């Protein structure tokens, strides 16, 4: 199910699933109907995780009303982290890099600032962050993570001297 909603150009856990080609991705992007379905699928998965897409233009997110219950699910079952990584990669493939940035920042905020998703923290830092295609946006998110990581001295996702200078 998730493979069909969020296809990638790489093999996932199901080795029988055929990876997408660049030509298929370009065809998807040209189809208004396909892209509308893609956004609906994204919204469906976000709701499953207790998140709402508040702005389709920017990709801004917020907690859903049922966030506490859904976050328990995220904390309890780590297989969701693989699914989120897949969704993030697919967002990049389909031209929604700005959606990627908001989703990663959402998880960094919930794990590092709000501390509501402690069992997602490793995936957010080790995998989610590095799905971001834009080097500039990825740097900004690494800096954001460093600012909120506790204890800051244990942060290993970037050289501290460069992070100190980065704005």
From TrEMBL:
One of its GO terms (cellular component) is membrane. It comes from Anseranas semipalmata (Magpie goose). Residues 5-163 form the Opioid growth factor receptor (OGFr) conserved domain. Belongs to the opioid growth factor receptor family. Pfam families: OGFr_N. This is OGFR factor. InterPro entries: OGF_rcpt, OGFr. One of its GO terms (molecular function) is opioid growth factor receptor activity. It comes from the Eukaryota.
């Amino acid at each position: 199910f998730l493979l069909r909603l969020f296809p990638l150009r790489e093999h996932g856990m199901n080795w029988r699933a055929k990876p997408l080609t660049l030509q298929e991705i370009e065809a998807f992007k040209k189809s208004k109907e396909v892209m509308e379905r893609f956004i609906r699928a994204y919204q469906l998965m976000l709701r499953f995780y207790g998140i709402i897409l508040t702005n389709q233009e920017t990709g801004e997110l917020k907690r859903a009303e049922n966030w506490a219950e859904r976050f328990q699910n995220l904390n309890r079952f780590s297989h969701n982290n693989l699914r989120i990584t897949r969704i993030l990669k697919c967002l990049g493939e389909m031209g929604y890099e700005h959606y990627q940035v908001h989703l990663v920042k959402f998880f960094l905020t919930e794990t590092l600032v709000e501390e509501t998703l402690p069992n997602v923290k490793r995936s957010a830092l080790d995998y989610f962050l590095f799905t971001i295609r834009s080097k500039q946006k990825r740097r900004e998110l690494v800096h954001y993570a460093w600012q909120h990581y506790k204890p800051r001295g244990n942060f290993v996702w970037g050289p501290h001297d460069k992070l100190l200078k980065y704005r």
